[in-house]
Amino acid sequence: MHPHDQTIFALSSGRLPSAIAIVRLSGSHAGSALQMLAGKMPVARTATRVLLRDADGEPIDDAVVLWFPGPASATGEDVAELHVHGSRAVIAAVFSMLSAMPQMRPAEPGEFTRRAFENGKIDLTEAEGLDDLIHADTDRQRRKALRQLQGLLGDRARGWRDQIIEAAALIEAAIDFADEGDVPAELKGPALMRIRQLLAEIETVLSAQGRAERLREGLIVVIAGPPNAGKSTLMNQLARREVAIVSPHAGTTRDLIEVQLDLDGYPVTVIDTAGIRESDDPVEQEGVRRARDRAAQADLVLWLSDVDHVVVERQGDAPIWLVRNKIDLSVDAASDGMSSESDSRVFRISARSGAGVGELLNELVGFARDYFGATEGGLITRERQRKLLQETAAALGRSISAVDLGEELAAEELRIAALALGRLLGRVDVEDLLDVIFREFCIGK
């Protein structure tokens, strides 16, 4: 049986118990399932209050149901929604009824969205935007994901692809009229102008992106330094809650501790690491190794120390900010010495009292703003999208160079460029990619 011959169902709302729970059905048998549960078919696209009943006619719940006949629905298929009370008992009774019906089965993760994609309701960039919106933690992530979901990149890519096809048609016509004197030149001229304009537009998009796609994952900030310097205390201050154990004994932190922060809408992951020192303890040695590895992968390192002259251990290319801690206990609070990182920025704080932490946070916001740049207007949100646009631009460039060598070569490069944009939209040669993308979705979406 083809998967689309089956009607799928899933809980599409949050964790139970809840005030209201939404059960969604999609497929050719959604209508019959709805009629069996509700006892009647509601008016399309009209919220209708009904008493849901089981196979024996016993009441299940007082509910509101919605009916969306395909293809004018979210998935392009017949869709029904049951808005019921969010108890585990109600959902279990509804699922029991649905599971007993022929050609009905629980949905896989992302299957509703995948059916919407396969039925032409959304393209792959919009599906990726929906996934980003579901997982958005900050307001800037939300705004960027919503723009993607609304077709920010997909609409542009479709326009670019249409222009490439039009240019290719002119090149193909020049081939067909090769024996007609000046006709090929008259056709190639407009085609080349269109290709050059399109190439410039795509290159502008690529060059303007910077680190825009990193907004999905966020900025990585690692707190590093020697043992007992107050790293865990600073971590708790930044998180505004106790996420790390604070102890006067060195070596308390053995593993990486991560916390997600929203700094003025920018997603930032702060990582507390083990104190970096030589140790005979194999567990502490592993913690130090992980600390060094994570610092090497960071976008910014906060090197914490409570002594005047600091030896900073650099890992990777990330900038290092020296954070001088325990200034409230320092005998000479005015002294800030650095023996190996004289180019680093220096902050003076008391992680215990919070003095100076606000200034450090403000600087972190500024760093994030400069790091991400103007991300909200950017088109690209994923590495996959960037690579395919780069392939498109490269093929367009080759087509311009190939025109004088032969129209057939130019036409082939334009075909490659159009194919890359088709893969970007998910319309050609992406079957292996679909399972990877849609399995990241939650069940019911």
In short:
This protein is an alpha/beta fold. It is built from 13 helices and 14 strands.
Could you characterize the architecture of this molecule?
The structure is a single chain. With 445 residues, this protein is of the alpha/beta class. Helices cover 43% and strands 18% of the residues. It contains 13 helices and 14 strands. It has helices at residues 30-38, 88-100, 111-118, 124-134, 139-149, 152-176, 183-209, 231-239, 282-297, 357-372, 383-402, 407-425, 431-438; strands at residues 7-11, 18-26, 48-53, 59-68, 79-86, 104-106, 219-224, 257-263, 266-272, 300-305, 309-310, 320-324, 337-338, 345-348. Strand 1 and strand 2 form a beta hairpin. Helix 4 (124-134) runs antiparallel to helix 5 (139-149). It is flat. The model is unreliable at 245-254 and 331-343 (pLDDT under 50).
The side-by-side strand order for the widest beta sheet comes to 3-4-5-2-1-6
Strand fraction band? 15-25%
Helix content: 40-55%
- Cα distance spanning the termini: 23 Å
Rg computed from alpha carbons, rounded to a whole number of angstroms: 29 Å
Query: What is the overall number of helices?
Result: 13
**What is the average per-residue confidence, as pLDDT, rounded to a whole number?**
82
Task: Please give the number of β-strands.
Answer: 14
Shape type: flat
Protein structure class: alpha/beta
Largest sheet, described in full? Answer: 6 strands, mixed
Q: From the structure provided, what is the oligomeric state, counting identical versus distinct chains?
A: single chain
- Please mark out the parts with pLDDT under 50 across 5 or more consecutive residues, or reply none: 245-254, 331-343
- Order of helical and strand elements: EEHEEEHEHHHHHEHEEHEEEEEHHHH
